[in-house]
Amino acid sequence: MVIVKSGKASTLQAEYSHLNTEALQTVVRLAQNAFQVSLCGLALFNDPDVWVPVSYGLSVPDLPTDDPFCRLLIHSNKKNVVSDISANTQLASSQLVTQALGLTSLISIPIVNGQRERVGALFLMDKQSRKLLPHENQILMDMAALIHEEVKRNQNSRALPDVEQQSVDWRMDFALSHPAIGVWEANPRTGCITWDQRMRALHYLLPGACVERWDDWLNLIVDEQRERVKRLFAEYQKGADPGVIRFKIELDGNAFRHIECRGSHYYDEYGEWQSTIGTSRDVTDQVLAEIALKQQSKLAVRALEAKSNFIACMSHEIRTPMNGVLGIIDLLSRSELNDTQREQLAIAQNSGNSLVSIMNDILDFSKLESDKVDFEWVEFDLAEEVAMVVEGLRPLAKQKSLNYTLNSQLGDSYKVSGDPIRTRQIFNNLISNAIKFTEEGAVQVEVSSQKRDDESEWVEFSVSDTGIGVEEEKMGSLFQMFTQADSSTTRRYGGTGIGLAIVKRIIEKMSGEIAVVSEPGQGSCFYGKVLVNSVEQSAFADLKSTDVDVSFDGYRVLLVEDVRLNQVVATIMLEELGIEPVVVEDGQKALNTLLNDEDPFDFIFMDCEMPIMDGFMATEKIRQGDAGDRYKGISIVALTAHVSDEQKHRAAASGMDGFVSKPISQE
Q1: Does residue 632 come out as left (phi exceeding 0), alpha (psi in the -120 to 50 range) or beta?
Q2: What is the DSSP letter of 272?
Q3: pLDDT per residue over 41-51, tens digit each?
């Protein structure tokens, strides 16, 4: 096949008249099979003429001598890997590549003669983006080595008499045994299989052993994989394509090797199925590496889970005493105190709240890191949520006399579907940071919405301040865990450096992004967007919440709690609200009390982790009627130091109606 016609084309063919075209066809066909590409061919050239004596796949048309594809093959002295031809200025204008065949990727490797002169190229082209994997690189080099040997043989044969020609034929035989791949061929009419020497070596076949039929091959495969491979081999025998097949063979001494094979069917000009030719290679190192990687991944997951469980456990253990500490502080703050006592109590309360905040941050990041955070998709008022966060932090801004503003393009009400809790967390963290690091000037919050499509939209936001700012070289680490601009920032302003890392993870989970621009001494601006689902705006926007006075006088509540300090704190808080609490230490006593107490209960606060019977089982039994039919539908609220999503789901699954995490306050 001449793809560049000129006066020298016949000269080129004459120059390579001694080529073993059948051998080259085998090599190119094996290359096309091994790489599974749309087109594979061998180009030989004598500038400016190019001749393709053999190719498989798409048909190669005639081309002008100055086509970029031809020029690349002629002038390139190195291997080429072009994964996206449209981005390659040289190849994008090729008639062969873009117009005739619509190809996307090209891989080529030069072929040299005995004088190490470039005389051709082996090329592989595909309609899909294609890169060269490490093991494929070796296969490509081996294929080029085969062709190199045949070109040298052709060159020598032109100068040698026929007697001497026989002495150089061994080179092709030697080259055929050199590649790291074996070649096999199956006859569809007789069912016979032919292996080359490399196939025998790959399977460690002993001298005298034969593989002549499919069953002979199957007998070499380990027992546990034989039936699976038998079904795949049967696909070949039916003329189908089972794709890549991997299996394991056992050697002497309990050693194993992993083999990968693939094949293609070939037909004559009448469409008759002539043969199935395939390649095999040893992939033991690759398989063992994959197994090791999976084991390392499992160990990493286990380590991450162990860390998450440890953090959750520590959070629970710290929250239990902190509930008592903050509860007592809250009760004391309601008593008669002088100014000094009130100031000291406020310091203790702030310290306790800071500790709880740090625990929450660490727990949040741990859950995000281990992908254990569930994001809700519920309808909520975005404008109201943002306004509530801004107003909630206004006292902090007022203490510093900051110009604190919200510029919302959402109006008084704007309904969307998403996760309101995580949305509040994003704004709360960014705004509180801006206030914390700004001593004077302004903090401005902006929020708007931009349609993405008919079903979703971007919530775009920015939080700007005139605070301390961040140096450019340190901005890259701002969103890393336990990172602040420098150690003096931590000493002066406090904090752990977890907040921004959490914000970034949450935003990424919400299909969004966040960035920052900053100038030291001038301030910072954090801006980004998150994805929410669109909701039809309706009369919902006109509804406003109304404060309602609620009286609990006369309520009787069963408090199920095993820690004495928590019992005392909760009892005092409930009594101050006019509620009569009845306290028991575990779930079994709760069931007994409900069955035997003549006065009815209106409500149950249920701790989750208790001896004898925990709150989950007690709740399930109450819902089943073990405490009497009248309490099957009583309101039960979990009261626990665990705050994980799994714990919340478990509480809901057991039949609890609500979830209150410790430490608790009367509010």
Answers
A1: alpha
A2: -
A3: 888 877 667 77
Residue 18 confidence (pLDDT):
63
Beta strands in 389-501 (DSSP E): 403-408, 415-418, 442-451, 456-465
Q: Which of 174, 120, 144 is nearest to 34 (CA)?
A: 144
**At residue 473, what is the residue type?**
E
Average of per-residue pLDDT values in the chain: 80
Burial of residue 172 (number of CB atoms within 10 Å: 0-12, 13-18, 19+): middle
**pTM exceeds 0.70:** no
Please, which residues have CB within 8 angstroms of residue 125's CB and are 6 or more apart in sequence?
Answer: 37, 38, 39, 40, 58, 97, 101, 103, 105, 106, 107
Distance from C-alpha of 345 to C-alpha of 329, rounded to nearest angstrom: 7
Taking each helix axis from N to C end, the angle separating 420-436 and 499-509, rounded to the nearest 10 degrees, works out to 150
Q: How confident is the model at residue 227 (pLDDT cuts 50, 70, 90)?
A: very high
DSSP state of 581: E
Backbone angles phi, psi at 253, to 5 degrees: 80, 30
Task: Give which of 59, 124, 55, 56 is closest to 85, Cα–Cα.
Answer: 124
Rounded CA Rg of the chain: 38
The β-bridge partners of 183 are 279
Question: In this structure, are strands 603-607 and 556-560 parallel, antiparallel, or unpaired?
Answer: parallel
Bridge partner residues of 273 (DSSP): 267
SS (H, E, C) 338-391: CHHHHHHHHHHHHHHHHHHHHHHHHHHHHHHHCCCCCCCCEEEEHHHHHHHHHH
613: which 2 tokens? Answer: 């019977």
Spell 45-79 as b/e; 16+ CB within 10 A means b. Answer: bbeebbbbbbbbbbebeebebebbbbbbbbeeeeb
Cis omega (within 30 of 0) on the bond before 242? no
| Ranges 60-74, 134-148, 306-320: which has the least confidence | 306-320
Q: Which of 643, 658, 653, 567 has the alpha carbon at shortest distance from 317? A: 643
β-pair type (580-584, 556-560): parallel
Whole-number Å distance between alpha carbons of 408 and 406: 6
